[in-house]
TrEMBL record:
Organism annotation: Listeria grandensis FSL F6-0971
Domain spans labelled Right handed beta helix: 166-262
Matching InterPro entries: Beta_helix, PbH1, Pectin_lyas_fold, Pectin_lyase_fold/virulence
Name used for this protein in its record: Right handed beta helix domain-containing protein
Superkingdom of the organism of origin: Bacteria
Classification of source organism: Bacteria, Bacillati, Bacillota, Bacilli, Bacillales
Any Pfam family the entry gives: Beta_helix
Length: 726
């Protein structure tokens, strides 16, 4: 009798499960408490089988919510999620999930279930769940806890998506340091990953993307990660479908992969290279349109090394591994075009800091050949980078390119704060920005460097050939960058052109000139002239030609030692750039020293010719080179005979612009002597070494001379002094 009752009970329970499955097509919400069992690890196989049987019955044309009640649900196999399904758990009063999906083996945990004979799914959500492996699950490298992707041939990069619209929200996803990545998206479009805790990835990343578009990763906490925090591997984003990584907190990446990388290569007899994966990582190639904004990245500890280096040395000895090769990098931008990195905070500590920012090209082989992407239109703007410890390359750049449709878009660093405490390791040149292979255009605008360590160059281009080619930086724009509060423009190496006034074209201010013009570019909107920090004039601007013009400066600009500056402001009247200006005479006419054969001076832009006049008659036209004028054989032209000599500047139409009297000076100034005067002083020119007083052809006194005194109105004049008469 007892045996019969037991059999009837089993039949009754199975009937309930069958009825649940049969009712699926009619339901919009399914409570999983009648299908899977909580808090019983021994039912992991049954739970997985029942879950997947249920998912096979769902009608993908009708949205279904799968409700997982409070409890721990064990599974031994991958759980498939079909189209049009939301899996949601129960939250407590604090908003924390109390519904756990735990895998007893390191398998693909949650994955896409495709319809029969199809490879396309849509509209899947995971909400309010705790998802993990068990602590004792046997580690398998291929396991990824959440794996929304599909297999593909490595050399077949056909652009297609297998999942459209994915949402992962308010989940705790803990891989227990096992398997591969914690979350992987492959060939997914329109995805949002937000308000999650993602931790303890295996050998790979917290979140990994590949062939994915229009993805937003927002406000997540990622920690203790095997490789990178968030990695965009290859073929992610497009011009209209960005990858947005915003307001995430990423802590301690590169914790396990370095050891496995070393072990694999070393034991295969392959030379081991440096590993420096990053908190946020573009690997490439063909990544496009990334927005990396307001994230906080922290890694390492003061006076400590990366744990991979410790473990490698412990297992392989100091002899095999004498020098650390596993490093932290903050943000890595390889194989990407059109990337904006703004408002982020990066804080790296310890003995193994490779770079704060690393930029490089990337290539892959596909069925048609080599696909290569050089980084271009990379904007790194208003971030805070801090490094405390040993830093190899604060910023390192390989193969920076320019956009095909806009040659001005290269690699730019604008208004970033860099703080370094510790040691800048000799990277060849003790440079902050190191160019290690041919780069088209680098813009450094308004960055602040605060550091006490040695730094010899703001920018250095490597002298070592890369791939057999001499390294060159074609164009460097360096405006208003400071080190410890002082302007920093130290550069070295093979640099084609350097521009120190990028947003506003500047040139010297000339006295006696009415007009001052130049080019400007966005974001500058208005240009102002300051004298001793006060605005004295605002320029007229032409928004079509992007030119600015000051009129009426002839009465405003005086060479009197005042400080003149050019200031550009944007449409919010915020200062964009400030440029000190040199004031020069429109026609500089030094005193002529009798007996000198060659005479030189300078002239301004409105003058094209300079002529020497004597008593209002032209006697000589100077040679000019666009800035300097020179008159030769002056010894035969100038006599100290009371004639009036003048220098006249003419414009391109031969009209007189300015006329300046030429002062004629003796080689030795001899003031009038008054009988009874005890001391006598005068001036002399550079070619005089000794001054003596002669009487009837004989020297009676030699003067004391002061070789340091400079008279402002005569270049090179010195003073001599004949002491008290005896």
């Amino acid at each position: 009798m007892k045996k019969l009752l037991f059999t009837l009970l089993i039949v009754a329970l199975c009937s309930v499960y069958v009825k649940e499955v049969q009712a699926v097509s009619e339901a919009k919400t399914i409570d999983m408490s009648g299908i899977v069992t909580a808090n019983n690890r021994g039912l992991a196989d049954q739970n997985a089988s029942r879950w997947n049987d249920l998912m096979r019955q769902l009608d993908s044309t009708q949205h279904t919510t799968i409700y997982v009640p409070k409890g721990v649900y064990y599974f031994s196999q991958t759980l498939g999620i079909p189209s049009n399904v939301t899996v949601t758990g129960e939250k407590n009063a604090e908003g924390v999930s109390e519904s756990s999906l735990v895998f007893t083996q390191v398998v693909r945990g949650i994955a896409t279930r495709f319809p029969l004979n199809e490879m396309k799914a849509h509209t899947i959500s995971l909400e309010n769940l705790q998802i993990s492996y068990t602590d004792d699950a046997s580690d398998e490298r291929s396991g990824t806890l959440i794996d929304f992707g599909a297999g593909y041939e490595e050399k077949n990069y056909e652009d297609y998506q297998v999942l459209d619209t994915l949402n992962i929200e308010n989940c705790v996803i803990d891989a227990k340091k096992k398997g591969n990545s914690t979350v992987y998206l492959g060939r997914v479009t329109n995805a949002t990953i937000t308000h999650n805790i993602i931790k303890n990835s295996g050998l790979q990343n917290g979140i990994g993307l590949e062939f994915s578009k229009n993805v937003r990763i927002y406000d997540n906490d990622l920690s203790d990660l095997g490789r990178s925090g968030i990695q965009m591997y290859k073929f992610n984003g497009s011009k209209a479908e960005p990858i947005v990584i915003e307001k995430n907190r990423i802590t301690n990446w590169m914790q396990r992969y370095g050891y496995a990388h070393f072990k694999t290569k070393y034991e295969a007899g392959i030379p081991v290279d440096v590993m420096n994966d990053s908190g946020i990582d573009s690997y490439g190639p063909q990544n496009e349109n990334f927005i990396i904004k307001d994230n906080v990245l922290t890694a390492g500890q003061v006076n400590s090394e990366n744990p991979n280096n410790t473990k490698i040395r412990m297992d392989y000895s100091e002899k095999v591994y004498p020098e650390n090769m596993i490093f932290y990098t903050g943000i890595r931008l390889c194989g990407v075009t059109d990337a904006l990195v703004t408002g982020n905070q990066v804080d790296l500590k310890g003995r193994d800091i490779f770079t704060m920012v690393y930029i490089n090209s990337r290539e892959k082989e596909d069925s048609t050949g080599i696909i290569s992407t050089k980084p271009s239109n990379i904007s790194i703007d208003q971030n805070k980078f801090q490094a405390e410890g040993n830093v190899r390359y604060p910023v390192r750049i390989f193969e920076g390119d320019v956009a095909a449709n806009d040659k001005e878009k290269g690699v730019s660093f604008t208004k970033n704060d860099f703080l370094m405490e510790g040691k800048l390791v000799n990277n060849g040149y003790y440079s902050f920005f190191t160019i290690s292979s041919a780069t088209k255009r680098l813009l450094l605008i308004g960055n602040t460097l605060t550091m006490g360590t040695r730094m010899d160059h703001l920018v250095s281009v490597s002298d070592v050939a890369y791939n057999g080619t001499q390294v060159k930086l074609d164009e460097l724009v360096a405006v208003n960058n400071t080190r410890n509060g002082a302007l920093e423009n130290t550069v070295r190496g093979n640099i084609g052109m350097t521009d120190y006034a990028y947003f506003v074209q500047d040139k010297p201010l000339f006295t006696n000139t009415n007009l001052y013009t130049g080019q400007y570019r966005e974001p500058v909107w208005k240009i102002r002239l300051l004298k001793n920090s006060q605005v004295v004039k605002q320029a007229d601007t032409d928004v079509v030609t992007k030119t600015y013009t000051f009129k009426g400066l002839d009465t405003l600009v005086v060479n009197d030692g005042s400080k003149y500056e050019l200031v550009g402001v944007n449409e919010s009247y915020q200062e964009v750039i400030r440029i000190p200006l040199t004031v020069r005479s429109l026609l500089d006419v030094p005193a002529y020293i009798i007996g000198t054969n060659e005479y030189t001076g300078t002239y301004g832009s409105t003058i094209t010719r300079v002529r020497l006049f004597k008593d209002n008659v032209v006697i000589k036209q100077a040679d000019t080179d666009g800035e300097n004028y020179t008159l030769k054989e002056m010894r035969s032209l100038i006599q100290n005979d009371g004639s009036k000599y003048e220098m006249v500047g003419l414009d391109k139409n031969f009209a007189e612009v300015i006329r300046v009297p030429l002062e004629v000076k003796s080689v030795l100034d001899v003031p009038e002597y008054t009988v009874g005067q005890k001391e006598f002083s005068g001036g002399y020119r550079d070619n005089i070494r000794v001054v003596r007083l002669m009487k009837d052809g004989k020297a009676v006194k030699q003067a004391d001379i002061d070789a340091t005194t400079q008279k402002l109105y005569i270049k090179g004049i010195r003073e001599y002094h004949i002491g008290r008469w005896s």
